[in-house]
Amino acid sequence: MKILHLSTHDIDGGAARSAYRLHTGLQDIGLESQMLVQEKSSNDKTVIAPKTRLFQGIAKAKLTFESLPLKLYPQKKNTPFFVQWLPDRIIPTVAQINPDIINLHWISAAFMQIETFPKLKRPLVWTLHDMWGFTGGCHVAGECDRYKVSCGACPQLNSGNEWDLSRWAWQRKVKAWKNLNLTLVSPSSWLAQCARSSSLFQDLRIEVIPHGLDIQKYRPINKHFAREILKLPQDKKLILFGAIEATSDRNKGFHLLQPALQELSKSGWKDNVEVVVFGASQPENPPDLGCRTRYLGHLHDDISLATVYSAADVMLVPSLQESFGQAASESFSCGTPVVAFNSTGLKDIVDHQQNGYLAKPYEVEDFAKGISWVLEDEQRLQKLSFYAREKAQQEFTLELQARRYSALFQEILMSANKSSFRN
């Protein structure tokens, strides 16, 4: 069985890292797996990307042209929105690789057009990393559920027109994808339910397979040693927050984290805790988080991430929407409990008051209460840490994820072979 993963990046970004982890996990159990990406950051020979500067320049130019239709909506919200209307050059490369099955991941406008999907002419498995696949262009729908019908009058475009850009993109998806041999995989029950309720994917097979990770790389490191390496204090409880664009991406919930930490500080924790932020450098005018805050900047490698997770006493994930929440599963694997809101994909990771705390969405006071509850009892904190690591070992290992995908791939290929034999 020859597997090809299509992903915009290999290791740059959360979706890319989860795709690359699956790719390596499949190799570890003896399967032939390759990745085809738009931009390659690793030195992995099984990851294929355009080598010439010409192709890289074309990709950047395409992103500029891709945004041209959005100029019709000057009041558009500052959120990612792609209609993927420009042609691509991916088909010859896929034909040369000649895979048995293709696993789609996060596909950007510079990489693949909506109309290219049926031209791949292979059974397709699409791992959903956000909501773009079943919307008219947005990646995070927020409170909007117009993807359940046919989009249009898009709130992210600030449009009151039923026949707007989102409806156009939705109609193109309906037309191009109606006869695909397509199976969806969601990393969480929440995202799977969203897909099932969508007008585009309601009739498709949808499986739930959590993202996996290498629990030997992400493992508990001695807390004293981890703090010594990172030059963090030994005599304080450390509260961790981090994500790509941790403080600027509204969906990551920094605007909720700030008042929650201020509330925590007022309740008597100010002198006993410090906040550690990764994924963002210290801004010129740092926001008041109620206590001392240290910014570690961007951490890209697994060892650095495992070290900072291990140094912390609690990880905060105040996201509004998460398709899964890899920061939470990585933290668990390092034995650090998580406080999050009881919503979206994080509900599949955090078990309330067993390995963390799920606050009422999106109540700042309860989030602050959750942080305090995790930290206030040292014996309880040790139990939470133990059960966090145990859950990662039982549910989020790379081998478990790879074997689940392998079984799914084999089932799909067997079904496709029987169908072609009958025809």
List the helices and strands and how they pair.
Elements: E1 2-9, H1 14-28, E2 32-39, E3 47-48, H2 53-66, H3 91-97, E4 101-104, E5 124-127, H4 165-177, E6 182-186, H5 189-196, E7 205-208, H6 223-230, E8 237-242, H7 254-269, E9 273-278, E10 293-297, H8 302-311, E11 314-317, H9 326-333, E12 338-341, E13 356-359, H10 364-375, H11 378-395, H12 398-422
Parallel strand pairs: 1-2, 1-4, 2-3, 4-5, 5-6, 6-7, 8-9, 8-11, 9-10, 11-12, 12-13
Task: Describe the model.
The chain is an alpha/beta fold. The chain folds into two domains: 2-212 and 398-422, Rossmann fold (3-Layer(aba) Sandwich); 223-395, Glycogen Phosphorylase B (Rossmann fold, 3-Layer(aba) Sandwich). Helix content is 36%, strand content 15%. It has helices at residues 14-28, 53-66, 91-97, 165-177, 189-196, 223-230, 254-269, 302-311, 326-333, 364-375, 378-395, 398-422; strands spanning 2-9, 32-39, 47-48, 101-104, 124-127, 182-186, 205-208, 237-242, 273-278, 293-297, 314-317, 338-341, 356-359. A seven-stranded parallel beta sheet has the order 3-2-1-4-5-6-7. Helix 1 (14-28) crosses helix 12, helix 6 (223-230) crosses helix 8 (302-311) and helix 7 packs across helix 10. The mean pLDDT is 94.
Radius of gyration: 22 Å
Largest sheet: 7 strands, parallel
Order of H and E elements: EHEEHHEEHEHEHEHEEHEHEEHHH
| CATH classification class of the largest domain | Alpha Beta
- How many structurally independent domains? 2
CATH H-tier superfamily of the largest domain: Glycogen Phosphorylase B
Low-confidence stretches: none
User: If classified by CATH, what would the architecture of the largest domain be?
Assistant: 3-Layer(aba) Sandwich
| Tally of DSSP helical segments | 12
